[in-house]
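Go through this chain for my students:
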Amino acid sequence: MRTAFGAEFDVVECYLNTPTVGVPPVHVADAVEEFVRNWRTGELRAADFDAVVDETREAFGRLVGVPGERVAVGSAASQLVGLVAQGVPDGCRVLVAEGEFTSVSFPFAAQADRGVKITEVPLRDVPGAVAEHDLVAVSVVQSAGGAVLDVEALRAAAETAEVPVLLDVTQAAGWMPLRLDWADWVVGAGYKWLLAPRGAAWLAVHPRAADRTRPVAASWYAGDDRWNSIYGLPLRLADGARRFDVSPAWPAFAGAAPALSYLASLDLEAVRAHGVALADRLRVAVDLPAQASPIVALSAPRAVERLSEAGVVASARAGRARVGFHIHNTGADVDRVVRALG
């Protein structure tokens, strides 16, 4: 058991795989277990989950610097990005980062039959290429190696060129302080740094972008009066971001509500400093440059196998071993990685 930032984590030694799957605090796992008990005994009431889901909207909004009323709920980042991709005009020119996580790029690439064209450029070149495109879709922190987008440079370029921006915060929200109320869309999945179960995701929609977002997965849950939108026509969707809701997976949101509320209560600058300091300590030991990110990609020979043999839980991404340091990690975890890699 580890204690960090006011929470307990029943986590195995040297778990460095948060960029793949986050480990929940004990109280979050307890909330999911309580859901299962209530489900098992028939004590669940569907309407009771409306407040739980709305709690996650507010918490996600606080974590990314966006008003909670702008936030829609879903199950996966790609599903929510698809609402944006379906709404782009025929022939739209979309700019993405080279090697971008495909949950960001594939929904737009799937629109090729409408003439939608995707251009990839190195992450550092994204701000400079904005004016030549009709939309930018990019992760704030890249999944494969933890590279961090120059958000302010992108904002300046997008505002000057009047080009809409979609930002994926799946590898950023939960450890990085964010203020993204200027972006047209902000999407994030909950099962990594947000320490929630898989199956919960959010999309913040700026009011100016609402008409360019298509509720292609509309259901009763997106109805203006949810519990009176279950049967029959006409279409009657909510006016705000709720019109883009996908009916939530209740077990996931049972854990997401306490997980996001917990993270939103923390000093995220302290969380950022903690994770980045551990990552930089590792980078110094293996002769890598600082990156202002808690994610480190390691290309040492047989890195994945050597880490696994040493009891380090990591992942393989883009031909390298990838580790990530979150709030429950310590300097001892860094030391074990260094020993494993010699």
Summary: The domain at 2-25+267-341 is CATH 3.90.1150.10 (Aspartate Aminotransferase, domain 1). The mean pLDDT is 97. Residues 73 and 202 are 5 Å apart (CA to CA). Residues 268-285 form the longest helix (18 residues).
